[in-house]
Amino acid sequence: MIICHCHGVSDRELRAAARRGESCADVARGCRAGSACHGCLPAVREILRENVVRELSRPKLEERQ
Question: I need a surface site. Which of 2, 22, 54, 62 has the fewest CB within 10 A?
Fold first, then answer.
């Protein structure tokens, strides 16, 4: 699904950026989502936030052993 219509950035691209640990500023510099009209910033932030929550709730390797 397209999240940033100004630059044609999809949710898949944003989730990949989130997995790489990119911030909103990194995303704006890289794929440019959120750098034009700013209408997609709430969705961009939410996708990045979802990844942080997922990573924090995942058991660490030491805890799994």
Answer: 62
